[in-house]
Write a structure and sequence with these properties.
Length: 334
Amino acid sequence: MYHRLIAEIASMPLAIMPEKLAAIVAFLGDQSAGIKYPASEIEARIGAASHPDRAPQTQGRSTAVIPIRGVIAQRANMLDDVSGGGGTSTEIVGRQLREVAAMPGVDRLILDIDSPGGSVYGVAELAAEIARMARGPIKITAQVNSLAASAAYWIASQASEIVITPGGEAGSIGVYTVHEDISARAEAMGVKRTYISAGKYKTEGNPFAPLDDEARGAIQARVDEYYSMFVSAVAAGRSKATDRTITPAQVRGGFGQGRVAGAVDAVRLGLADRIGTLDQTLAAHGASGSGARRRAQVEQFESEIAALDLRIQSNPRSAAAAERERLIQQLERG
């Protein structure tokens, strides 16, 4: 079963950090060899479980929270195969969005995100649903807590705003797939596989033969199509959130080239709007008095300063020092 699952995961279009995919494939290889891990080890290798069947949480009277954790896939059964119930199903999150929309008095939704991404299947549809919801009366905040990469960032980019925790990372905009040529291994084992098929391209890209130029071109076109969808969604979502025009070409040539960015750079590049923890976001949304709002504001400044401190430690000559001084002066002025 696990060999089949490895092949299935590797062959689909992916929007996940490559190092996380490598960890998943290695984990599944261990599973196929009979090595069993406790739940805590599975969570560390695959990603935190999101308890996908749980109803959206509410914070106060007007704020709902939907967690998006671990590997993203369209349906929960794939996640069950990989991690015994961990990860996030796009179909279930879509259902939770509709539940929130029907909750009386709720005008804020926080997507609490910690995910390296996953399969692209179902992501465009979920992102579109979030974008539609964000155009209505409910303000949606994507809280990067602490990773929104690849498919997870695709989802986050459709929110009304993106807040990133001081030690967080966001981005990894891109799509890829993997072709594994195991023909040499099969030959060494004395195995020769013959495909009998109908349809010129039916067995194209099978793992028992190297890719020819035509097959490679077809797979590349498939990846390019999903990447174009991803980039266009990010451009539209960030344009609405920032109230300025961001084109797909700007995303492609800027922060959409596949790398993640830390909190300070994420805000500078436009991947996120501000730095803040989940608690600060909840406090800002739930605060009713000026004192509570002021405390939330102070905590946000402190988070931004802490993130700049980390950047200064790694590069004392960076522009972060001047930005840190500006924030301190603004905080002192109140």
